[in-house]
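Form 12-C: Joint structure prediction
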Amino acid sequence: MNELAQSSGFSGHNVEGGFDVDRVRQDFPILGRQVHGKPLVYFDSGASAQKPRAVIDAMTEVLEAQYTNVHRGAHYLSQTLTDRYEGVREKIAAFLNAPSENEIVITRNTTEAINLVAATYGRKFLNKGDGVLISDMEHHANIVPWQLLRDEIGIELKVAPIDDRGVLDMDAYAALLDGNTKLVAMTHCSNVLGTMLPGKEIVRLAHERGIPVLLDGSQAVVHSAVDVQDLNADFYVFTGHKLYGPTAIGVLYGKADLLAQMPPYQGGGDMIATVTYEKTTYQEPPYRFEAGTPPIVEAIGLGAAIDYVSAIGMDAIAAHEKALLAYATERLTAMPDIRLFGSAPEKAAILSFVQDGIHPFDTAATLDRAGVAVRVGQHCAEPLMARLGVDGTVRASLAMYNTSGEIDTMITALERARSLFG
Amino acid sequence: MTIAPEKLAQYDEYVEALDLLDEESRFEYIIDIGKRADKTPFPAECMDDAHLMHGCMSKVWIVHDPNGDSHIFRGQSDAIIVKGLVSMMTGSFSGLTSEELAEVTLDHVRGLNLGALTMQRQVGMMAMLKHMQKLSQRSDRTAETLRAAD
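Section 2 - Result
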C-alpha cells in the first residue's frame, strides 16, 4: 500500500486492481443505517454525497486537537494549522493537475465560484452587448449569475442547444461562438442528464476565437479524473460536498494570468496587503479572492476526501460507476412505463426518469418507503425541464458506494409504485 | 376562542383512523384518500395560476367558497399523495369561520401524526393551512366592504 493510501484512511480496496464496493461501503458509516425499517439506499449523491470515515475523522481531529485561525497567529497552533490548510490547496491543485496551488481559490461552493468570476472577470472584461454562452442543460448556478450581470451591465445570455439525447449540438455551439461571444460558461457534466460534455473540444473551439472558457465541474470531478491542463480550461469550478467532502467549501481554479488581472470579489481581512484610510492594496491571487476567515475545518475535510478518492483512484471509481450505470439503464429500460431522459454516449451515473401516468413525487415517495433516497423535481434546472417537456423528474444519482443490489431494490419499489398508483 | 368540537369531526376521524395504522398502512391510507378525491371532480377551470400554491415538487390548487360566516375549501394536486394530503386539510378545516381557522395551528397538523411519512416540509401542509387562512380572511374583508357599500 502506498503512503497516500495509508494516510487517507483507505485500506486497499483495489489492491489487486479490482474495486471492492463492500469494503468501500464500510468506510461510510451512514450506509449502515436504516430508513423506514429498510436499509438506506442512497441514490442522491448528485445533490450531496455521503462522507467517508476519513473525512469525518480529519475534521474531528482538527476541532479536537489542532483548531485555531490560520494565516495570522504567531503561535504553534496557527503555524501548524496554516501549513495543513495550505497543504489542502496543494492537494486540490494536484487533484485537478493545475500547474500551481496559487491558481486555486477557496470558495464556499460552486455557486460562489461562478458568482466570483461573473462579478470580477465579468465586470472588468465584459461590456454591454457582449455575449456569454451557456448550454441548455445548466444548473441555475450557471444561469442566474450571468443574468445578474446582464441586468447590471447589459451582456447577452446565449444558449447552445442540445439534442434529444441530451448531447450538446457542437455545430450550433461553434456557430454561437461567432459574433459577440466573449465568454463560454458551461457545465462539464449535466446534473440532470448525466451527459459528459466534450470539455477539451469546447475549449479548443472557443480558444480558436480567443474566447475564454469556464467549466462547471460540480458533477464531473466526482465521476471521472479531471485534468485542467489537458482541458486547457481558463476557469474550472467544483464543490466539496458532492466529492465526499463537507459542505461550505468549493474551488475556483483560474489560470494565473487571468486571476492576476481580476479585481477582488469581497473586501475584508486576509485579502489585503496594506490598509490605510486613504488607500488599500490587495494580496496576490489566490488570497485576493478570499476575504475573511476561510472554511478551515471544511478545507481539511475536503483534503481528506481528495486523499480518499485519489487512493482508490478516479479511474477505478469511474469504471465501477460505469458498470452500475449500464445495469441501471438496462433494468429501467426494460420497464415499459419508465421514460428515461438522457442517453448521451458519454454519460455519468445519473438517471433521470418519470413513470408514465405517475407524478414524480408519488414515485419518489414510494421509493422513500423502500429506503431509497432520490431527488424529485426540477433539479435547479428549470430551463432544461422546459426543453424536456416535463414539470420534473425523479433523479437517481449513483456514487462509488452503490451496488447493483441497490438498483434491484429501486426497481422493486418502482414496480410497487406502479401497483399503487397505476 | 376555541373551536367547537363538532366542527372538527372530520379532523378527529382522520386522527383516529391514522392512529390505528402502522406507518406503511398510513402511506396507503393517504393514497386511498387521494384516489377517492378524484371521484369528486375538481373544477378544471380552477386549476389555474390564480388558485395555484407554488411548490417545487408538485402543484397544489385550492378553491375557496364562503358559506355564510364559514368557509368551504376544496383542494387538488397533480400528485396523488399530495392530493390525499390537501384533501385531508380541506376536509378537516372546511366549515370553520375565519376566526376559528386562525386558531388552527401547527399542532393540529402534527396531531394527524403523519410525521416523516409525508415529507411535510416539502409538501407544505402548513403552507396549505396558511393559504386557507389567508383566503378566509380576504373573503371576510371583501364581504365587509360589500356590506359597508350597501
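Section 3 - Comments
The interface with chain A takes residues 23-24, 27-28, 31, 56-59, 78-82, 116, 119 of chain B (CB under 8 Å). Chain B has one domain: 9-142.
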